[in-house]
Amino acid sequence: MKKIFISHSAGDKEIVREIINFLESIGVESNSIFCSSFEGYGIKLGTNWLDAIKSELTDESLVLFVLTTNFYNSHMCQCELGAVWANTIKHIPILVPPLTFNDLEYILRNQQSMTINDENKLSSLYEEVIEWFDLPQLKAPIWKLKSDRFLGSIDAILKKKYV
User: With a threshold of 0.90, does the pTM exceed it?
Assistant: First the structure.
């Protein structure tokens, strides 16, 4: 079953919550999203969390790397990054300001990436996700409404916390 795996630092839950809301708003089912920081999207009680994360990183996963200083300082995030690279799993780096493309490190430096508040790249992410899951295209006004809502929420978080 195809999934989206959101690789992130627990310190960036506010941004990740908006990504989950965005994905669901465009038609991705909640059981197709793996995110270890939110109950119901991650690891079941009593499960070895390292084994659970490892089992989720398959060629059926589209990995979204939510890149922040917290991400780069997290050993677990670095492990996920290495696993994705070693297993050539499809992935999309998402930079969160104040990080810029110059901050991309190591294996992500050569990847086409996006900044989380770039409207054009958000459209490209939308297209990747609907193609990944074979979802129907939203009508243009509906897409505009959803993207504007996401970008507004992200901008509010960035102004408050990240910039």
Answer: yes
